[in-house]
């Protein structure tokens, strides 16, 4: 009850920020980001677009990978209209395709740019069953496996950048408290929903994909829960029921600037130097689920992920 009251009134936690803090407020104390290059997935709308806008305001060079280049160009134009000196690069990326991830990384590396920040923000929630071109359930392929490979392939560049610049690299996985809704054998359930449509449950599949992001425990990375916010994530279920649900939970909803705050805080705040493997909510460290904090499950998932991405490796990519 006390935590709910703190959330509703926006009481500040140990970080000095709380649920009502905005992305602009939490980055007010960050160092000048002009030497920094950041890749932000899912930046064409919602939380990702606000994260990109605020980091651009603080001076960061942005790389915006997107499935829709038109949408990414529109995001770029909006940011440039507000901050004309921003450097923004739009690139093609479909996270549900491992080939597309490999092409993106190869193209990014050809630009010879540094990489200081990687924000894995893109997310998909679907009530309809789907399989990616690689034969993996679509929600898991987009929310986790694509980001897993993207992070894995970009790590070398981030390590090199940190070594030459002296600026610590940061990886931020945007997760969800819904990850705690999943229980059971992750690998078995993934196999079931990949092979059998009748076993598919949209909410459980989304929970699995977000739980997977919680467990990259052997990578220098932090996870964040942005809070409850209405974004385009629910676009394939817009209508009366969706509107009613959001109306009933309106007191718990964050604005998009508030929802982007934790990602920006974890990506930029000086207090988080050398902090990794943590889970943040409302710009403060929080507890994750028992399954999400299991090192044994992390190792199991990591091994399974390595097998999945190597299975679809193509020569030259």
What does this entry look like structurally?
- There is one protein chain.
- Strands 3-2-1-4-5-6-7-8 form an eight-stranded mixed sheet, with helices on both faces.
- The chain has twelve helices and eight strands.
- About 13% of the residues have low confidence.
- With 317 residues, it is an alpha/beta fold.
- Helices cover 44% and strands 10% of the residues.
Strand order of the largest sheet: 3-2-1-4-5-6-7-8
- Give the termini separation: 52 Å
Level of helix content? 40-55%
* DSSP strand content: 5-15%
The string of secondary-structure elements, in order, is HHEHEHEHEHEHHEHHHEEH
Unreliable segments of 5+ consecutive residues? 177-187, 189-219
Spell out the blueprint of helices and strands.
Layout: H1 2-9, H2 23-26, E1 37-40, H3 46-57, E2 61-66, H4 69-82, E3 88-92, H5 98-110, E4 117-120, H6 138-165, E5 170-174, H7 186-195, H8 202-214, E6 222-225, H9 240-248, H10 256-259, H11 261-268, E7 279-281, E8 284-285, H12 295-311
Parallel strand pairs: 1-2, 1-4, 2-3, 4-5, 5-6, 6-7
Antiparallel strand pairs: 7-8
Helix pairs in contact: 5-6, 6-8
Keywords: Oxidoreductase
Pfam families: adh_short
Family: Belongs to the short-chain dehydrogenases/reductases (SDR) family.
């Amino acid at each position: 009850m006390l935590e709910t009251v703190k959330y509703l009134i926006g009481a500040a936690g140990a970080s000095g920020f709380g649920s009502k803090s905005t992305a602009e407020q939490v980055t007010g104390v960050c160092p000048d980001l002009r030497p920094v290059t950041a890749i932000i997935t899912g930046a064409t709308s919602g939380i990702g677009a606000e994260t990109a806008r605020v980091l651009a305001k603080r001076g960061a060079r942005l790389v915006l990978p997107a499935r829709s280049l038109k949408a990414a160009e529109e995001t770029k134009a909006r940011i440039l209209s507000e901050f004309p000196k921003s450097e923004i690069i739009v690139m093609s990326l479909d996270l549900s395709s491992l080939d597309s991830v490999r092409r993106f990384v190869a193209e990014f590396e050809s630009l010879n740019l540094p990489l200081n920040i990687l924000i894995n923000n893109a997310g998909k929630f679907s009530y309809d069953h789907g399989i990616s071109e690689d034969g993996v359930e679509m929600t898991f392929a987009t929310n986790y496996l694509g980001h897993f490979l993207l992070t894995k392939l970009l790590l070398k560049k981030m390590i090199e950048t940190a070594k030459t610049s002296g600026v610590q690299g940061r990886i931020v996985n945007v997760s969800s408290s819904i990850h705690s809704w999943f229980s059971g054998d992750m690998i078995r359930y993934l196999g079931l929903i990949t092979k059998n449509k009748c076993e598919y449950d949209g909410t459980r599949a989304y929970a699995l994909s977000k739980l997977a992001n919680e467990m990259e425990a052997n990578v220098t990375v932090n996870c964040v829960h942005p809070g409850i916010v209405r974004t385009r994530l629910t676009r394939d279920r817009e209508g009366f029921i969706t509107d009613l649900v959001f109306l009933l939970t309106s007191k718990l909803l964050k604005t998009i600037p508030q929802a982007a705050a934790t990602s920006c805080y974890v990506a930029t705040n000086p207090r988080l130097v050398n902090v990794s493997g943590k889970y943040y909510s409302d710009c403060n460290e929080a507890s994750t689920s028992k399954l999400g904090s299991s090192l044994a499950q992390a190792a199991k998932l990591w091994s399974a992920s390595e097998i999945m991405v190597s299975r679809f490796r193509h020569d030259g990519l």
